[in-house]
Amino acid sequence: MKKFISKLHYLTQDLENRSHITQAQLACEAGCKWVQYRCFTKNDDELLDEAHQIAAICDDWGATLIITDHIHLLDKADIQGVHIEDMQADFKAIRQAIGTEKTLGASANTFDDILRIAASQAVDYIGCGPFSLTDTKPNDYPVLGLEGYKSITESMAKNNIKIPVLAVGGVRIEDVEKIAETGVFGVAISAAVSKAENPAAAFKEIYRKLY
Fold first, then answer.
1. What DSSP character marks residue 106?
2. pLDDT tens digits for 8-18?
3. Domain CATH number, residue 60
4. InterPro entries recorded for this chain (predicted)?
5. Which residues pair with 188 in a beta bridge?
6. Which helix (H) or strand (E) holds 67?
7. CA distance 184 to 38
8. Which of 22, 87, 97, 132 has the greatest count of CB atoms below 10 A from its CB?
9. How far apart are CA 211 and CA 65, in angstroms?
């Protein structure tokens, strides 16, 4: 079943001055239709408490809520899907575990990753990155840049892979238009909004550049 995938994904993050709940609220008020609740610093009870509150916000504003990695919490709150950051995960097994209704996202760094993930026929979208250096999700993966995305989208076209791919990792407001020109489906952002002086204005500006 083909799922709705937004061109703009907003990822919450651990911030000292703004909770995940407040981040979700600000994003939804600004027009966000896709929130990924990404938190690894809390226990299950705390995660579930926040997830219920974020789910209520998303429901009020008509936004899709995805949780990062915590598959075991998927059916305990009004969460529409899960994003798996482990690129080597068994996506067929995960799809069997969560059923066909839930949205399943995966992370990738190379075209080979995308090829393998697409071959599973289990994943609804792929977050591919990092675009540039990122503090939100520090890693040792090679930075892709604009040329990296151009190469990936060209390879996808040659291999008839049509799964939506979003650029993620260090995406700034000023990068969005050029990234969109590479042929990727959309972008996933976090710090560009969360750490902006005016998060709502930042989100709206990115949205305008994509739609």
1. E
2. 999 999 999 99
3. 3.20.20.70
4. Aldolase_TIM, ThiamineP_synth_sf, ThiamineP_synth_TenI, TMP_synthase
5. 9, 168
6. strand 64-68
7. 22
8. 87
9. 20
Q: Are 110 and 148 in contact (CB under 8 A)?
A: no
Known binding-site positions: 69, 107, 134-137, 170
Instruction: State which residues form the domain around 204.
Output: 8-210
pTM of the model: 0.95
Structurally, the chain folds into a number of domains equal to 1
Which residues sit in the known binding site for Mg(2+)?
69
| DSSP bridge pairs for 127 | 107, 166
Q: Indicate whether 3 belongs to any domain.
A: no
In a domain, residue 2? The reply is: no
What's the CA gap between 107 and 113, in Å, rounded? 8
How far the first Cα of the chain sits from its last, in Å, is 24
29 in a structural domain: yes
